Amino acid sequence: xxxxxxxxxxxxxxxxxxxxxxxxxxxxxxxxxxxxxxxxxxxxxxxxxxxxxxxxxxxxxxxxxxxxxxxxxxxxxxxxxxxxxxxxxxxxxxxxxxxxxxxxxxxxxxxxxxxxxxxxxxxxxxxxxxxxxxxxxxxxxxxxxxxxxxxxxxxxxxxxxxxxxxxxxxxxxxxxxxxxxxxxxxxxxxxxxxxxxxxxxxxxxxxxx
Amino acid sequence: xxxxxxxxxxxxxxxxxxxxxxxxxxxxxxxxxxxxxxxxxxxxxxxxxxxxxxxxxxxxxxxxxxxxxxxxxxxxxxxxxxxxxxxxxxxxxxxxxxxxxxxxxxxxxxxxxxxxxxxxxxxxxxxxxxxxxxxxxxxxxxxxxxxxxxxxxxxxxxxxxxxxxxxxxxxxxxxxxxxxxxxxxxxxxxxxxxxxxxxxxxxxxxxxx
Lengths: 209, 209
Description:
- 2 copies of one chain form a homodimer.
- By secondary structure, chain A is an all-alpha fold.
- Helix content of chain A is about 70%, strand content about 0%.
- Chain A has a domain at about 60-195: Tetracycline Repressor, domain 2, CATH 1.10.357.10.
- Chain A has helices spanning about 5-20, 30-35, 40-45, 50-70, 80-95, 105-110, 115-145, 150-175, 180-190.
- In chain A, α1 crosses α4 and α7 packs across α8 (about 150-175).
- The first copy, chain A, is elongated.
- At the A-B interface, α6, α7, α8 and α9 of A face α6, α7, α8 and α9 of B.
């Protein structure tokens, strides 16, 4: 893989445009103009716009992994605290971008899953990987609560949580408000994770994040 | 509002293309060619592509309301049965389109919420309207279960359910599989709605839909 600063610049410029406008609606000429890069250079780094899109996805997934490491997969914290930290970080980011951009992976999945099998497959892998990391955290919640739930049900609940969070992110974009995100966290902690032995260890709003 | 068969044809052709390709990526020329309508006729019925998009949204919302009337808002059935019927119908529709199209409202919200305030506002109204209808059903679940939960918490739970279902729909598109939808329904009925007095009235997979 050819790698240098110009390649990375192109990826970042492309990502910022694509997360706002969508992949199809973002022309290569916009990306080149914004990055100040001639067309020939683009094709030195990327074979095609699809190749470029996949590089953006991989770059985003790598960066996102650091957020997951610091929150959901941070073994220094209790599993309920890890969950809460993950959601609070997501809410902060949505506030920072004024609920405009949502999640790049969710946006591209919505736009491209039916159109491009390479994109769909890569996005599916990334979401599956996130679900696996969430399942470990949920399994730790069960373990702490001594609830008798097993790894299989932790995986099911992890998938439910991540899908729900994607949906709440979309609803936040549509309402330009954090309310759907806060409502999701509230219901998740009170109605879904409210198990004997674990409910009282939920961090309150004021201590989380 | 000018209304006749040609206008309705344009709306249906546009909807089929836009739900698959997205609004921005669907050119007016594609729509005109597919519908066999000259450009002049298009502008007789619609002021602009945006005006056309809003008409497609309204048409979809009207059609969707009939599905809600037959499921979630069908007072002839128990509230848990209504919920189950709604989800089973959604799964059947996703299966029929091979998990390619998802929900038009969710797709357009993802694509256009940050770009176009008229679209965002209309989509937000529609989702809010659906949430209100779900809240009535959830309030009926609480009433049947005599759980002491009030209308406010029914509204919160309804929003959580609809956002989660949108997220599960997106995940089904990305995995080309009904598994995220079935997992959502399973967790919803077992972990979220599993309340004293209501759990046993949940229809089983084989009797629902």
